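Onboarding guide, step 5: your first structure request.
Type a short instruction followed by the sequence, for example:

Predict the 3D structure of this protein.
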Amino acid sequence: MRPELRALVTNDDGVDSPGLAVLARAAAEVGFDVVVAAPDRQYSGSAASLTAVQTHGRTVTEERPPCGGAPTYAVRAAPAHIVVAALSGWFDPPPDLVLSGVNRGSNVGRAILHSGTVGAALTAALHDRRGLAVSLDVALGSTRDEHWEAVHEHLLPVLGLVEQAEVGTVLSLNVPDLPADRHRELRSASLDPRGSVQTLVEESGVDGMVVREVEVAGPPEPGSDRALLADGHPTLTALHGVGEAAERIDLPDSPDRAGRP
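The system replies with structure tokens like these:
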């Protein structure tokens, strides 16, 4: 019998997001010991920020009714801050896995750098844990009902992959916002050079600016996560966090200030 793994479920859409409950329930179904801790409000675009609201030096937390059947906490902090706290003494025992999502909106391309959903999973890897970021490709500005149930059937096998992966592994799963019977097969995907959403400054002046998000124009790179997702495929991408580049830096000649030869 395998030892029970503890999974922290978090997100950047906030503790009341329906996607959070979808992920928590799936994690419990595969046998993980689940604890849910998520921001008390929207924290999209927070990347791996460690910001938090504190009172008298204490990060503000509040116990909430169970989410997906698991004990749940709302935290006035970015998701990566929650991950660091969970892995650094808040929970005993600390989580073995960090599951982040299900995000309302895709996280594709190199623009995932800015995603709080992905940032939480990458923070897990930085602390020698496995991480999974999960996103549903809800169109920007959409007002129709989301297909959260379609994420579920892809979660179960992917959670199995995360469980068996090496420590430090981070996977990103993106699911089309379509009924499950309209999904094509799950595909391994590379990152698109950009992503699905970009920031546009509409107005600017001495008193501030107006900034909004718009869909990225132009075709995606063939075979990328953005392209496959648009074609109806759920996509899975392996990620890694910050690391030095393989290339050596050619430094300019400079005098030795210490006077050594």
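Each response can be followed by summary notes, for example: Residues 6-192+220-239 form a domain with the Stationary-phase Survival Protein Sure Homolog; Chain: A, fold (CATH 3.40.1210.10).
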